[in-house]
Amino acid sequence: MRRKILVVDDCIDSRNLLERLLNKSGYKDIILAQSADETFDILKKQGNEIDLILLDVIMPGMDGIEVCNQIKELEAVKDIPIIMVTGLSNVKVLEQAFIAGASDYVTKPFHSIELNARIASVLRLKDEMDKRIQREAELVIANEKLHQLNEVLEQLSSLDGLTGIPNRRRFNSYIELEWKRAGRQKSNLSLILLDIDKFKLYNDTYGHLEGDECLKKVAKVLQSTVNRATDLVARYGGEEFAVVLPDTDLDGAIHIAETMRRNIENSQIPHASSTVSNVVTISLGVSSFHGCESIQSIETLIDMADKALYEAKNSGRNRVECFDICLLEEV
Ligand code: GH3
Ligand code: MG
Predict the structure, then answer these.
(1) Most buried by CB count within 10 Å: which residue of 7, 102, 132, 285?
(2) Hey, where are the domains in the chain?
(3) pLDDT band, residue 330 (cuts 50/70/90)
(4) Which residues are recorded with the post-translational modification 4-aspartylphosphate (predicted)?
């Protein structure tokens, strides 16, 4: 690998000697600077190409320690390793250079074996650091990609991440299918929309994580209440669930809704702050459609269940209401 080394020394003889020694050791790409100003000028123009700086401690104007200090303050070049160059009598000042961030030092007069060993070791360390930084950057990119991919997967998935039951996306496609089938076969299709009572108070009392646990338990109970393979219990929104019941008339759907209400109540999930009961309860709205009827759209069927749910909430909660045509006309 071709290395570019910047040699900073006010003494022309030292500069030339260092250059010769470095050339002899195979470092052919050497830049020479004789002052702090010249050093910063070079770093500004080609700082990103320089692999190592050999920096004399004693220089007129700004000395090597201060130059080292200032280089380490510059974001673009602060990672270039610096080896301080000093006379034997000046070794004491090196403490300041190390505090400033210098990597190592060599003493004048130069010994080529020592010089080479120190340069090689500093460059090796720099290579390791560069590799680590690169790996970390690659890891960040890989993590971002994974995150994006997970989001896509989640969107494509038909299951709700928290409860594991079908999500709203699945609900939408399923009810669409069943709607068409009911129309074709002149059969029944019923829908239950249900919502946990006073769930905000539940979160406020037990915390959001417990709230999530509660949602999981409710989902499980609802799922275990339906019997047919064609029944679909889905998480419709935050604490709202939807149940699609193909080939089920209004009476059958009310029966299932009532069983769900009772099963949730009997699960005895404590809800100390609820104004409805001391356990978790749900309110349910039922709507039903027969293939012969002229309900215009799925949205109407959903709207009907929603109105019934609203009625169940309004008339005290922990109950089942079914859609009555009057509810639709009231709004
Ligand atoms: P109501 O009896 O009228 O339904 O009252 P409520 O408190 O259940 O209704 P409201 O709509 O005021 O509050 C719903 C709460 O459900 C608020 C929201 O923080 C909580 N919620 C929604 N989604 C989640 C969830 O995924 N996890 C948890 N823990 N809470 C959720
Ligand atoms: Mg609620």
Answers:
(1) 285
(2) 4-135, 168-330
(3) very low
(4) 56
- Residue among 263, 152, 148, 242 nearest 189 (CA): 242
- Asked if residue 173 has pLDDT above 90, the reply is yes
What's the gap in Å between 198 CA and the centre of ligand 1? Answer: 7
Look at the chain and count its residues. Answer: 331
Cα–Cα distances (Å) from 308 to 165, 197, 302, 330, in that order, read 24, 15, 10, 12
pTM tops 0.90, yes or no: no
Beta pairing, strands 240-246 & 188-196 = antiparallel
Question: Does residue 319's CB lie within 6 angstroms of at least one atom of ligand 1?
Answer: no
pLDDT confidence of residue 331: 41
Q: Is the peptide bond before 109 cis (omega within 30 degrees of 0)?
A: yes
* C-alpha 200 – ligand 2 centre gap (Å): 7
75 annotated active-site: no
Active site residue: 19, 178, 239, 311, which one? 239
Atom of ligand 1 nearest to the CA of 238: 23
Which of 167, 197, 199 has most ligand 1 atoms within 8 Å of CB, for mutation?
A: 199
State the Cα–Cα distance between residues 290 and 292, nearest whole angstrom.
5
Q: Which CATH superfamily is domain 4-135 in?
A: Response regulator (3.40.50.2300)
Cβ-based neighbour number of residue 46 at 10 Å: 13
* Reported CATH class of domain 168-330: alpha beta
Tokens of 9: 């020394």
Nearest one of 189, 291, 292, 199 to 244, comparing CA atoms: 189
